[in-house]
């Protein structure tokens, strides 16, 4: 009598996983921090990371923060934004929350169905006498229509603050997309292409603006006896900065591996009926921060049914972004949150499923994800 061997269960696969190098690689930096006894307040690792990131990203000035949400809050304070701000309903909660925390009124505009970014026509249609700014999101790292958005802003005298949480290292027409608009805000959360565990940054065009940001992220303090503004404690500490410097040494390899995974997904899923994948726009250097697919009625299963099937097999895809910001309790009473005003965003939220993509994801596991989608 023979029995079938019991195979070990396959390890679960998540949408992302942070890169953690051998501990001994981080220990010299940790020892240097301990020896210097400088843990925060713009120490040497903080200063080194700001300089290294400005050079790597091709930007003029960058101010580090302990997380990206505080970066958004401070960017709005830096530009003294008031009144109404036009933004996207198809994003992470921090985008709209940063407006509420500043006493601003979010005004949602619909997205382009192909890029998932704010539709410039819808931006222009949403402008009122109370509008002072636009906060677009480079969704999944795909650049917004930055030229059109800037023309609209210039015509109506509006500020532009980009939520660039997904856009680390992304280039558009040969230049960093972070150089567009008045300010761009990055996230360095553990789920991002580049991480400082938690963290973020504001990219700005000139030294004077950076000085104001640096005051605001340190309680508004200019020196021991001078407080310039009602600031906040948004400083990145030395351990985060040291971790970021270590990550920066590997980031090109990370992005290249993400690109290989994205190409593998695209090659095997582009022809699957009922599954839509996003193309990398022309003249764009992508970072492959996410790999969303969109599941329509031709697929044979609903998006949620596919999501549950994948989870039952240990593949933890995510429905980024579902529900829409406009459907959350604190926003759904706004006139701009009306469902009939946001048809493209609603459809994307009902169809989207982000697949696992991170540097340590092995080819066999990428194929495991593909097989679950192709399976009928």
From TrEMBL:
Keywords associated with the record: Pyridoxal phosphate
Modified residues (N6-(pyridoxal phosphate)lysine): 192
Active-site residues annotated for this sequence: 192 (proton acceptor)
InterPro entries cross-referenced by the UniProt entry: DegT/StrS_aminotransferase, PyrdxlP-dep_Trfase, PyrdxlP-dep_Trfase_major, PyrdxlP-dep_Trfase_small
SUPFAM superfamilies tied to this protein: PLP-dependent transferases (SSF53383)
Gene Ontology biological process: polysaccharide biosynthetic process
Ribonucleoprotein is among the record's keywords: no
Residues passing through the membrane, by range: none
Single GO MF annotation: pyridoxal phosphate binding
Family listed: Belongs to the DegT/DnrJ/EryC1 family.
Protein name per the record: dTDP-4-amino-4,6-dideoxygalactose transaminase
Organism per entry: Sphaerotilus hippei
